[in-house]
Amino acid sequence: xxxxxxxxxxxxxLFAILLCLPALAQQGAPSIPSxxxxxxxxxxxxxxxxxxxxxxxxxxxxxxDAALAPPAEGESRVVxxxxxxxxxxxxxxxxxxxxxxxxxxxxxxxxxxxxxFRQDVIGVHxxxxxxxxxxxxxxxVTGRTSNEDIEANYASxxxxxxxxxxxxxxxxxxxxxxxxxxxxxxxxxxxxxxxxALNKWLKEYCAKNRFVYLEYFSAMVxxxxxxxxxxxDDGLHPNDAGYKIMAPLAExxxxxxxxxxxxx
Length: 264
Hints:
The protein is of the alpha/beta class. Helix content is 50%, strand content 9%.
């Protein structure tokens, strides 16, 4: 057999295998398990590239962090770290003239925030950190998560902040409501008992470790134990009326943290 014939004999089946590889890869690709909630399943599927390529979404604020000048002398810089509730909060409208930096990212859970903590918090050199998180963990956005796991992530954030002389304010998880059709799934994913239990732990953890606890929940809950209807159209994300309640509470907590002689 000639060399040309040998090459042809080898290359034909090899070429056929190469043609099949995309299909085989597609068939073998793992799918995200269903949560039983259509909206959440669709949302998780839309974020596959984030979960596989940039889990903490470091790319979101990388350029902004790099461009940020060091705090001026006497500047009380504050970083707000959180999920969509923080992300959608237009801080300059509610805290005019304040050196408050928004580092919220839509859809994030506490493990994702830990991934970007060094870049988006420590590297920004704030005096105070305000953390509002946990609601997406409870909902299982990045997978089923126990309250104990969420608590461990809070504690890790606190340890990192304290090691870098950053005062910490932990905000309570907000209540949710199901007064509208759009709110039904978000409400079902966030059992009231879990929110109450997590907030109870947070309050006790802050008291024990001398951090500032920011109580949003009691200011926004109605007589039925749900988020007041007027404060959120979708049952989860505060509207302007909701943020107007939150802003002075946050400012009071920040000033309390700043009044301390040393980081909490």
